[in-house]
Amino acid sequence: MKRMNSFSALDIINRVIDETVHEGDLCIDATAGRGFDTLHLCQLVGDSGHVTAFDIQQAAIDSTQALLEKHAVAHRADVRLQSHSEMDTLFAPESVSLICFNFGWLPKGDHTINTKKETSIAAIEKGLSLLKNGGIMTLIIYYGRETGFEERDAILAYLPTLDHTRYTVVEMPFVNRPNCPPIPIVIIKDSI
Q1: Which of these, 111, 120, 109, 125, lies nearest to 151 by C-alpha position?
Q2: Cβ(129)–Cβ(91) under 8 Å?
Q3: How far is Cα 189 from Cα 147, in angstroms, rounded to an integer?
Q4: Is the pLDDT of residue 128 over 80?
Q5: CA distances from 112 to 35, 46, 97, 139 (A)
């Protein structure tokens, strides 16, 4: 097993993604942002897999598309200017291997535009129905300054309500880091 030298929320989640996603998988990046997660997933699914990325900001869509084109993997993905809470309109139940979320605001973007608890929880619920048995959902909750606390609290209150016979939820908060550290979370859809 490779030694983990970095302990950021993103590094932890990427390690889970690397161990979960395989060639040919169908994956969703529910919050495209600047496109780095979409790119990572495209590299893992290969030419026989597919990634769909969602974002509601045109700047995120443009950034993601440009990054995928730069790395010659744009043919492995579609990038949609659409809310992640509508993902269930595009996929069959139990067809997706991995769904990743980064809740908060667009990096280097307008911090007054951020994900909201209503659409985020709806997206989590819909995403869980899309996951295959054994599928994984990853979440990183970014919050701080004047935004994100309400969404963080709502998501953290919602997750314990998931049926423990169907889902395993692992929350990995950084308990000794200052300044509102991101919270990585992994949800595994257990096989029945």
Answers
A1: 120
A2: no
A3: 30
A4: yes
A5: 20, 36, 32, 21
* Backbone torsion region of residue 105, taken as left when φ is above 0, otherwise alpha when ψ lies between -120 and 50, otherwise beta: beta
- State the pLDDT at residue 156: 95
Average pLDDT over residues 160-184: 92
* CB 98, CB 138: distance < 8 Å: yes
DSSP state at residue 43 = H
Q: 129: pLDDT confidence band, cut at 50, 70 and 90?
A: very high
Strand 183-189 with 167-171, pairing:
antiparallel
Neighbours of 93 (CB within 10 A): 12
Lowest mean pLDDT among 87-91, 92-96, 116-120: 116-120
- pTM for this one? 0.92
Q: Please tell me the distance from the alpha carbon of residue 80 to that of residue 138, in angstroms, as a whole number.
A: 20
Residue partners of 137: CB distance under 8 A and separation at least 6: 98, 99, 100, 101, 124, 127, 128, 131, 186, 187, 189
Dihedral sign computed on CA atoms, order 8, 12, 13, 18 = positive
Q: Give burial (CB, 10 Å; 0-12/13-18/19+) of 72.
A: exposed
Report the distance separating Cα 167 and Cα 187, nearest Å.
Answer: 7
Q: Are 99 and 30 in contact (CB under 8 A)?
A: yes
SS3 assignment, position 55: strand
